[in-house]
Amino acid sequence: MSTRPSLAEDDTRGKAYDARLIRRLLPFVRPYSRWLALALGLLVALAGVQVLQPWLVKLAIDEHISIKQPGGLGSLALLFMAALIAEFGLRFAQMLVLERAGQGVIHDLRSAAFAHLQRLPAAFFDRNPVGRLTTHLTSDVESLNEAFTSGLVLILADLVKLIGIAVVLFVMDVRLALTALAVLPPMLLLSFLLRARMRHAYREIRALISRLNGSLQENLVGMRVVQMFGREAAQREEFESINEAHKRAELRGVRFESLFSAIAELMSSVTLAALVWAGGEQYLAGAVTFGTLVAFFEYAGKFFAPLQELSQRYTVMQTAMVAAERIFRLLDTPQAPDAAASAGTGMLPKETRGEIVFDRVTFAYDETKPVLHDVSFRIAPGERIAVVGWTGAGKSTLIRLLVRLYEPTEGHVRLDGVDVRAMPVEQLRRRIGVVLQDNYLFAGSIGSNITLGDPRLDADAMRRAAEAVGADTFIARFEQGYDEPVAERGSNLSVGEKQLLCFARALAFNPPVLVLDEATASVDPATEARLTATVERVMQGRTAIVIAHRLATIQNADRVLVLHRGRLVESGTHAELLMLPNGLYRALHQLQFGSARQA
Ligand code: ADP
Prior knowledge:
- This protein has 599 residues and is an alpha/beta fold.
- The protein has helices at residues 19-29, 33-65, 73-118, 122-127, 130-149, 152-172, 174-181, 184-221, 223-228, 232-284, 290-332, 340-343, 395-402, 425-431, 446-451, 459-468, 472-477, 495-507, 525-539, 551-556, 574-579, 584-593; strands spanning 356-364, 370-379, 384-388, 410-415, 418-419, 432-435, 444-445, 485-486, 513-517, 543-547, 559-564, 567-572.
- Strands 6-9-10-3-11-12 form a six-stranded mixed β-sheet, sandwiched between helices.
- The longest helix is centred in the middle third of the chain and has 53 residues, at 232-284.
- Mean pLDDT is 84; it is low at 1-6, 8-13 and 339-346.
- The chain binds adenosine-5'-diphosphate (ADP).
- Adenosine-5'-diphosphate binds next to helix 13.
């Protein structure tokens, strides 16, 4: 594997507030700043009516009940009702508004991340399993949303409320206020101590979740292989070990959180007891009114709720920061260099004839071990080339460099005299039709699998491509024809039909160059014959490069390139290469086709 860093390395800081990350989030938040401001306004109003309620109770007791003065008690009760209704309305509105902002932000962030992913070089996807990337775009983005809906803004609102309550307490009675707040310093100290532990646990949980997703994805995609090779038990064990580690990390996190909230609960009871004692004495001594005493109890209750939630909010923020870190790391991954912006159309070949040149190309996937060494060749327009070599010789790599999924470490790949790096990728890929063994079909219709939704390809172009490869006959048999839905990964199509669809897709733009990776998997003879005929037909008039496994393909080629351990070792026609004494092709041919199969 690569020595380059991947998103996998979770060097997450675990801060609950990381100014650098918040700053980076700003561009995403700005479009929704009005909603956030509104939410904050609503929250302050909410804090206001909450602080008001105990005060009304105090008034009712001191000015009416204690002194047996019923006049005005009714309107106080009404006012109290109004405060309750206002609290309900404000809470509802505040949640809606916050969600509106939060969902907006994560929608934009997710779109940005998706668009970014689409432009990342193929090498990136070698290093980052799909499951992990899925986590970034789903649960990581989701945790960021929580930073808005139950994190940052609520912390601010809680602070406003706490300060409001503290002020009222001091206004009512300084001594009792000090008693009520005495519990604050130990609470803060405790949360500070537990915080470090929690941070560690949560970081571990995040990392394990993405490993869980990665393993799950791998197993689901490879389920058939797992079943065919009877690997269920081994895979289950592997999954189980990650799952178990995740459970343990979660439990560790929960332990600290429970400890914190239990202690907070205890502290609040202790405070109430202290208030009963100190407040009772004060009341009996006539220093405070009974209403004040009741209000103190009420306020103390309201004071502790946000304190208890603080640890939860803290966790939310921490998770969100970890998530943000990972999303930004993804967004910071350099995209595949695309010359589209800088090169302009001046760099495009004047005419596309389909001449391909590899000029001293050396390439390594991971910088250390080159898989292609100093490979040079020229393919003339219209020439038909077969590439042969042992598995791992570098044949597929050659193709990947041609279509610029990867770029040469040294040397140049040219199409019609222009370095493929200087060509907008989209232009390059319109000129080279590729059919790989891995016939990937997308969810959608048969037609959309040919055009891949490209607006430049109308229904006519789609039909022409299908007809050119003879796919139209089987498509016509479907009830909905081109609109027939393709099941996930094309499970409602036969191997041959899938292959034909991929041929049609490769030909949709009528490219001057065609690249084929000949299937090694055997299909039935009838299908094989049909595919061979199709291949013959579609190669007419195009430059063709075929990673060849069939003798017929090799014999029909104008030239055969023989790759061995990443080097181009022989080149010539089938007949010429067979003549080379001690030639690699000769050996390969003997082994692969033997004399018996040489019909
Ligand atoms: P062939 O198509 O001739 O079987 P490839 O071009 O697929 O060979 O592979 C050439 C070498 O490059 C092999 O040793 C293979 O292990 C290595 N290789 C192929 N793809 C990757 C990749 N994505 N990352 C790292 N190494 C790779």
